[in-house]
Amino acid sequence: MLTVTDKIQIPMSEFEFTFARSGGPGGQNVNKVNTKALLRWPIMESPSLPDDVRTRFLEKFGSRVTVDGEFIISSQKHRDQKANADDCLDK
Question: Angle CA(80)–CA(40)–CA(14) in degrees, nearest 5?
Fold first, then answer.
């Protein structure tokens, strides 16, 4: 459960994580290990958000929403999948 406020909590089942290869320097595992985390959240279908909150969210972060209505955020800050997935949730 991702707790946004006391009244807004999003179940982890609404999020989908995929992993890809990170770019840039990183030693011998760079471009060999899928550590970059991509979080997809179908914000348009989410029952966890009140409509007014969804509207404000889309006004602010609409450029990160796909035509399919998925909010996408990524992280490749760390060298392992779990740390990058946690970073996506923190963002």
Answer: 105
**From CA 30, how far away is CA 64, in angstroms rounded?**
26
In tens digits, what is the pLDDT along the chain, a chain of 91 residues?
Answer: 888 888 999 999 999 999 987 766 555 555 567 888 999 999 999 999 999 999 999 999 989 899 999 999 999 888 888 999 999 999 9
Half-sphere exposure of 77 (CA within 13 A, CB side): 12
Amino acid identity of 71? Answer: F
Q: Is the pTM of this model over 0.90?
A: no
